Amino acid sequence: MTTLTVKPKNKKELSKAKKMLKVLEISFEDNDDKPYNPEFVKKILEARKENGSIQIDPANPWKSLGLL
After folding, report:
1. 16, 17, 36, 63: most buried, per Cβ within 10 A?
2. In a domain, 56, yes or no
3. Which CA distances in Å does 21 have to 7, 10, 53?
């Protein structure tokens, strides 16, 4: 099925959109609670735990984090 992206201008519009979807019995996900990919956060926390800090190479940040 298709994914729709709704872009409310403010909290009032967001609230109305959520209510409308509920009334229409259309399922939706509220991604405000999940701003970061959990796997990415886990890698950052593991690196911090192992090294005491995180050293990121600006030329290749993804490799520095072990994501490549």
Report:
1. 17
2. yes
3. 14, 17, 44
